[in-house]
Design brief:
The complex is a heterodimer of chains A (359) and B (402).
Chain A (H helix, E strand, L loop, with lengths): L3 E5 L11 E7 L2 E8 L7 H5 L8 H5 L6 H16 L5 H29 L3 H22 L8 E2 L2 E2 L7 H24 L2 H7 L7 H7 L4 H5 L6 H4 L20 H25 L14 E9 L4 E9 L6 E5 L1 H7 L1 H5 L6 H8 L4 H5 L1
Antiparallel strand pairs in A: 1-2, 2-3, 4-5, 6-7, 7-8
Helix pairs in contact in A: 3-4, 4-5, 4-11, 4-14, 5-6, 6-11
Chain B lengths: L9 H22 L3 H7 L2 H39 L15 H4 L9 H13 L10 H18 L17 H9 L1 H12 L3 H32 L4 H7 L17 H17 L24 H26 L10 E4 L2 E4 L3 H20 L7 H29 L3
Antiparallel strand pairs in B: 1-2
Helix pairs in contact in B: 1-2, 1-3, 3-5, 3-12, 3-13, 5-12, 6-7, 6-8, 6-12, 8-9, 9-11, 9-14, 11-12, 11-14, 12-13
Classes of the chains: A alpha+beta (359), B mainly alpha (402).
Chain lengths: 359, 402
């Protein structure tokens, strides 16, 4: 049979947003793949140059609509380094708590989308049901569910209510029980293993060479977690273990995310216990000069912000390095030789978010 | 063994109904002093024509409306419950209820939702792609609908609830059900779209690998029952097993246990339910071979899948689960007709709906299997095991063990 190109996108159930994956198929076998992006470009980097430092947070919130706090936090860290300020201790703890709750919510969104991709729509509903609880927690913290606008330059927007620890404990106790159930649905389901094991192999060397980061890199067996390798906030004062799997396939990547959710629960509970009283925000200077960059561990990998300023009250240049933008480059290599149905397993397992790819 | 609700049978009942109706017509014409026209209406040819017209209508309405809507409703409610939500809840409240005054229509059982969806689909425009092969594109839904309805020409719901009695009934049902994949290939090819083409080719590959184990299992059943007639097949399963109260359903005989499992798996594949729904894998192929269809054409393609599921489950019940056999509870008589409280139709529908629910349960709890894995399961596992089933059945038949 002759080879031909099939467009999977820009509007396709597999895409999770607006982008296009062209695959060249020989019957059912993928010969080549070519990601085409740019359908969702909003020019966040350029718009940031005409906004004051604090007002950019509204834009960075919308970089990735399922993981907004982690992105705003990366920006705030970079700007704080630019200004040379140290935020109060309680603010750091609140940030860690909000980051980890956001990470769980983001990973649950991944689980939902991954389930729908491989044909398990029940997983979609289950994961969204539990995600709702964590969005409620974010709502208690920030007053908003999705684009929460919580981290600010100099701390966080507001303190948490007095009974927040109790709400967190209740939600997490419920969630850990459900997480066992989901792991059961994955590990004990022969069909799930058939769809994920040995699919989309990405060796450790290749992953590092392509610039793949985050859970995808840890699924390839590399022990890189920026929360531990370049500790920021108070991650070095909290007990937790990074999740690393050595199988390099879709299954390893999904197990990494499942284990990360468990670790995030541990971090939230530990941070709530260790959180000191005191102020949660300081007043940052209005203007700044110089340049700074900070990398943080986003839900999807290494989120890096480079901010330069020329003494004005707005950044001179903002550059964003988004993890999935780099991971997409490795996609054709992961796909070659697999079947058409494996496209969804591979794309689902790398947890794509078009908002941050196109920026 | 309980009796049937219909006496003597569907066509006989329709004949009595026709004779009553035509008697009224004759009386009217007689009163209008047109006795020739009146007696023409009572002539045998006209009576037979109207009898079969009414019987056909009853059977199609019963199968395609009542059971299709019920299976759809059961599926939508059941998978909603599996997914921890309530599912369809459209209901029209009674005009005197408080809900009606508040304008609430979403607190019902949701049975009307499917009808509402059908009305919506009817209102939509029927789009034919400019580059499609128009004849084949329009023929495919017609073939699916007609071949599925054709199943019910010989499909027995009980001893007396059938349209026609055919000695090769099981073969006819299998043949009518296997016409579906041909229409899928036609639809996939004629839409002139890459997704539908891949979907159609997948359907062709699936048909090749799953029709064979399905038919081989039926061969094993036929070997033991010695007939292709569904009525005799059910009658064979009626006697008690080795002096116990357990009926001798085929599923309880050792070689057929394996055959039952294989038939069930092959049936799920034949019906394109989720673990094997590769021709319309909606994550990778948008909607597979139905991508280019819109409006009521899509409604037919989509809705008749459920009727095929019902027919397939019914076939499974006839072949393996004793058909309409069931315990007798009580019978009362109306105008001299003995009417059982739980008639054969009840037991048949109960078993069929339970099988349908198991299929739904499976399809909403496990992911879709990849296309090449589906074929591998079919050729490497199911066909050898089906041959083993035939061997076992042959051994049991020769030794006279069952």
């Amino acid at each position: 049979m002759a080879e031909f190109w099939v467009n999977m996108g820009p509007q396709h159930p597999m895409t999770h947003g607006l982008w296009n994956l062209r695959i060249k198929v020989d019957g059912e076998t993928i010969v080549d793949a070519e990601p085409i992006i740019g359908y969702l470009h909003r020019g966040v980097e350029k718009i940031s140059e005409v906004r004051e430092f604090q007002k950019v947070i509204v834009l960075t919130d919308r970089l990735c609509y399922v993981s907004s706090i982690t992105w705003s936090h990366a920006y705030c860290l970079a700007v704080e380094e630019l200004m040379g300020i140290e935020i109060p201790e309680r603010g750091k703890y609140l940030r860690v708590i909000s980051l980890e709750i956001q990470r769980i919510a983001s990973h649950l969104m991944w689980l939902a989308a991954f389930g729908a991709d491989i044909g398990l729509l029940t997983m979609l509903l289950y994961a969204l049901r539990e995600r709702e609880l964590f969005l409620d927690l974010i709502e208690i913290m920030a007053g908003l569910r999705l684009n929460s606008n919580y981290t600010r330059v100099g701390g966080v927007r507001n303190d948490v209510p007095a009974d927040f620890e109790k709400s967190c404990q209740r939600v997490i106790a419920h969630f850990l029980k459900k997480l066992d159930e989901y792991e059961d649905m994955m590990e004990n389901s022969k069909t799930f293993l058939m769809r994920t094991q040995g699919i989309g192999k990405l060796s450790k060397e290749d992953a590092i060479n392509w610039g793949v980061t985050g859970p995808n890199l840890r699924g390839s067996g590399a022990d890189v977690d920026l929360r531990r390798t370049i500790p920021y906030e108070v991650y070095d004062q909290i007990d937790w273990e990074p999740a690393i799997e050595k199988d390099c396939d879709c299954y390893a990547r999904s197990i990494v995310r499942m284990r990360e959710m468990r670790e995030s629960c541990k971090i939230v509970l530990d941070a709530l216990k260790k959180m000191p009283p005191g102020p949660y925000r300081m007043k940052p200077p209005r203007r700044a000069e110089g340049e700074a960059f900070r990398a943080t561990e986003d839900s999807r990998g290494e989120a890096l912000f480079y901010v330069a300023a020329d003494g004005d009250d707005r950044p001179y240049r903002v550059k964003i390095r988004s993890p999935i933008f780099c991971t997409l480059a490795a996609v054709p290599q992961m796909m070659r030789g697999h079947k058409v149905a494996d496209v969804v397993s591979i794309m689902g397992s790398i947890d794509i978010c078009v908002g941050e790819i196109d920026k | 063994m309980s009796g049937s609700l219909l006496t003597p049978n569907l066509v006989g009942l329709c004949r009595s109904l026709t004779e009553i109706l035509l008697g009224i017509v004759k009386a009217i014409f007689d009163a209008l002093s047109l006795p020739g026209l009146g007696s023409w209406f009572m002539s045998p040819g006209v009576v037979v024509f109207f009898t079969y017209l009414i019987a056909t209508l009853v059977m199609v309405m019963w199968a395609a409306l009542v059971n299709l809507l019920s299976v759809m409703w059961v599926e939508r409610k059941l998978y909603s419950r599996i997914q921890d939500r309530r599912g369809i809840m459209l209901g029209v409240p009674w005009p005197w209820s408080k809900k009606y005054k508040r304008g609430m229509t979403n607190l019902g059982w949701g049975f009307l939702q499917n009808i509402a969806d059908g009305v919506k689909l009817l209102q939509k425009e029927n789009i034919t792609p400019a580059s499609a092969d128009k004849l084949l594109f329009h023929a495919a839904p017609a073939i699916i609908v007609s071949s599925t309805i054709m199943v019910f020409a010989v499909f027995p719901f009980s001893e007396n609830f059938y349209y026609t009695k055919v000695a090769l009934g099981v073969l006819f049902v299998l043949a009518a059900l296997s016409l579906g994949p041909f229409a899928i290939i036609l639809a996939g090819y004629s839409s002139n779209n890459k997704y539908t083409l891949i979907g159609g080719l997948r359907a062709a590959a699936m048909m090749l690998s799953y029709e064979i184990p399905l038919i081989l299992c039926v061969v094993a059943v036929v070997l033991l029952s010695g007939t292709l007639d569904p009525f005799q097949m059910v009658a064979v399963q009626e006697r008690p097993l080795l002096g116990t109260i357990v009926p001798s359903w085929n599923v309880f005989s050792p070689p057929q246990m394996l055959g039952f499992v294989i038939f069930f798996i092959a049936l799920v594949a034949e019906l394109e339910r989720i673990p094997f729904d590769i021709p319309e894998a909606d994550a990778e192929l948008v909607e597979g071979w139905t991508t280019e269809y819109g409006g009521m054409r899509f409604g037919f393609l989509f809705g008749f899948k459920w009727l095929r599921a019902f027919a397939g489950a019914g076939l499974l019940v006839i072949l393996y689960l004793g058909g309409w056999n069931g315990p007798v509870f009580a019978t009362f008589s109306v105008l001299g007709y003995p009417i059982p409280i739980l008639p054969q139709e009840f037991w048949f529908l109960l078993k069929t709906y339970l099988v349908v629910m198991v299929i739904i349960w499976i399809s909403w709890s496990i992911p879709r299997v990849r296309a090449d894995q589906v074929l591998k399961i079919g050729w490497n596992r199911l066909i050898p095991l089906a041959l083993l089933t035939i061997l076992g059945a042959a051994v049991f038949k020769t030794m006279g063990w069952f």
